[in-house]
Write a structure and sequence with these properties.
Layout (H helix, E strand, L loop, with lengths): L1 H22 L5 H10 L9 E7 L4 H12 L5 E8 L2 E7 L6 H20 L3 E6 L9 H17 L1 H4 L11 H8 L11 H13 L3 H10 L4 H8 L3 H15 L6 H13 L5
Antiparallel strand pairs: 1-3, 1-4, 2-3
């Protein structure tokens, strides 16, 4: 009984430290290092944050998930905690150089175990870069959280991303979305024309153009996404060019349309 209470108290203390690190309240490298070394972290070993988001989670399920994560044997987990429906892990990679692959393998393995053993579905996962300095865990947590948030907003485009750099242009779209100046921008004429044409003719030319841009002009992949034949897709692109006079070979026009499509996605 006494041992169980001590274990729970230690776990709460560890979780409290993690929250203080993630909020920036504790940002001294030596202080954090001393505590993490008591948890088994080797001297000068890197740490990272991994976040898993679930549709819902009970406290009992959290305990099961925390145990499953620790026994996945893919990565050393130093501290884990729960924030509403998110499981947050402070991990120590085996190798900084191989962390990209190591993290993906861990996330894939854990996601499969969670679905098979507990019937739970991970809606999104995000990971920070490993750092050998422990004074800025706050930015690591923000990196992983941003990946989660943008993957939930742009499910199709970012479903394979787990690191911040893999968000690509959506990092800047995120900043622009939160700017009050963005709402003052004039609407894209090409998008407006296609929206009007689609309404009047019950077509999906705007969706077609977005799919082609999403797939970087890979016509086979875009056709598969739209569930149509490549010849049908080529015909639609021809109509898009006739209606809008857009030149998709011009990178300035092309990037501008893509940014406007994504920037005003879900923006009222």
């Amino acid at each position: 009984m006494q041992l169980n209470l001590q274990t729970k108290r230690k776990e709460r203390n560890d979780q409290e430290l993690l929250w203080q690190m993630m909020t920036g309240d504790v940002a001294d490298h030596d202080t954090v290092a001393a505590h993490l070394m008591r948890l088994g972290l080797k001297k000068e070993q890197a740490i990272a944050i991994i976040v898993f988001s679930f549709e819902s989670m009970t406290k009992a399920q959290y305990k099961q998930l925390a145990y499953a994560a620790k026994t996945a044997q893919r990565m050393e987990i130093l501290i884990q905690t729960l924030d509403e429906n998110e499981l947050i892990l402070l991990v120590s990679p085996n190798s900084v150089l191989d962390f990209d692959q190591e993290a993906r393998e861990f996330i894939d393995t854990f996601s499969g175990q969670v679905k098979e053993r507990f019937g739970l579905c991970i809606t999104a996962s995000g990971c920070s870069y490993p750092k050998e300095q422990y004074d800025d865990v706050k930015s690591s947590f923000e990196e992983a959280s941003t990946v989660i948030r943008l993957k939930q907003l742009f499910k199709r485009e970012l479903h394979e991303s787990i690191f911040y750099h893999e968000l690509g242009v959506f990092r800047y779209i995120d900043i622009l979305k939160r700017s009050s100046e963005t709402k003052k921008l004039a609407a894209n004429h090409v998008i407006q024309k296609l929206q009007a044409y689609d309404r009047e003719n019950r077509t999906n030319l705007l969706e077609t153009l977005e799919a082609v841009l999403d797939k970087e002009d890979n016509m086979s992949a875009a056709a598969k996404l739209l569930h149509c034949h490549v010849n049908t897709l080529n015909y639609r692109l021809k109509r898009i060019k006739e209606i809008t006079m857009v030149d998709l070979k011009d990178p300035v026009q092309k990037i501008g349309i893509y940014l406007d499509m994504k920037l005003f996605h879900n923006m009222k």
